[in-house]
């Protein structure tokens, strides 16, 4: 929870278009409803479970993992979503971890991201029911399971995520939109997925690496190495460099 604060920047309200942004906002507003209900019913242990599940699985391992390239490219939609989700999450966590949330809040205040003197003087979040889409939440839950299975297959075959693959055969009993299929393709780094109807989720990867796919993998590797070095020596995006590559 503390580490996520480093990704938060000052941002303005912006129109939301991408499916992963709509999903995390839906999950956030569902969370506000559920946590409010549990606290009103004097079930802080249940509220805590829901909060921890949200920040670990939905936000950190889900949304942030999905949008890491957009984050590194200073995407305005992601900046707005992360700020909106994180500040509301801090408010929801405040009664349960008061000192941690207050320390984070004071740092955000110092960076002029929040204005209130204290997280404990802030209004309790209200759920925006218009942003809740249970169908989308269910579809994303299935997509996350598929991604988890696909990554496990890559790990089993010892093919790193940086190497693109031609396709994956995905079996699932849910119909997934084209937009959501593109999210799965991006997360598994495959050019396309073939979706088949089946009761059990399974993922079979096409492991054949063509010269074109191999070249793309090397290009990604080089790009990451360059970005890492730029960051290490303190360059900003506008700084131009002269690049020398030594290859076999």
Question: How are the elements arranged and paired?
Answer:
Layout: H1 19-40, H2 44-66, H3 68-72, H4 76-93, H5 98-110, H6 134-157, E1 165-172, H7 178-188, E2 190-197, E3 202-205, H8 211-232
Parallel strand pairs: 1-2
Antiparallel strand pairs: 1-3
Descriptive account of the structure:
This protein starts with 18 loop residues before the first helix and ends in a 16-residue tail after the last helix. It is 56% helix and 8% strand. It is mainly alpha-helical and 248 residues long. It is globular and about 60 Å long. α1 (19-40) runs parallel beside α4 (76-93) and α1 (19-40) packs across α6. Strands 2-1-3 form a 3-stranded mixed β-sheet, covered by helices on one side. It contains 8 helices and 3 strands. The mean pLDDT is 93. β1 (165-172), α7 and β2 (190-197) form a beta-alpha-beta unit.
């Amino acid at each position: 929870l503390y580490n996520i604060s480093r990704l938060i920047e000052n941002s303005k309200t912006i129109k939301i278009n991408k499916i992963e942004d709509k999903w995390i906002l839906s999950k956030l507003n569902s969370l506000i409803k559920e946590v409010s209900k549990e606290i009103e019913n004097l079930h802080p242990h249940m509220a805590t479970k829901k909060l921890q599940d949200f920040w670990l699985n939905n936000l950190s391992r889900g949304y942030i993992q999905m949008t890491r390239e957009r984050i590194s490219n200073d995407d305005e939609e992601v900046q707005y979503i992360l700020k909106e989700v994180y500040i509301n999450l801090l408010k929801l966590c405040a009664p349960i971890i008061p000192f941690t949330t207050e320390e984070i809040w004071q740092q955000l205040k110092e960076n002029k991201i929040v204005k209130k003197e204290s997280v404990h003087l802030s209004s309790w979040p209200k759920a925006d029911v218009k942003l809740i889409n249970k169908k989308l939440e269910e579809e994303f839950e299935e997509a996350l399971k598929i991604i988890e299975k696909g990554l496990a297959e890559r790990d089993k075959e010892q093919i790193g995520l940086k190497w693109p693959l031609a396709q994956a055969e995905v079996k699932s009993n849910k119909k997934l939109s084209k937009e959501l299929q593109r999210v799965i393709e991006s997360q598994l780094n495959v050019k396309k997925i073939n979706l088949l109807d089946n009761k059990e989720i399974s993922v079979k990867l096409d492991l054949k690496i063509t010269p074109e796919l191999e070249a793309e993998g090397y290009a990604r590797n080089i790009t990451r190495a360059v970005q890492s070095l730029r960051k290490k020596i303190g360059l900003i995006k506008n700084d131009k460099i002269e690049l020398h590559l030594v290859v076999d």
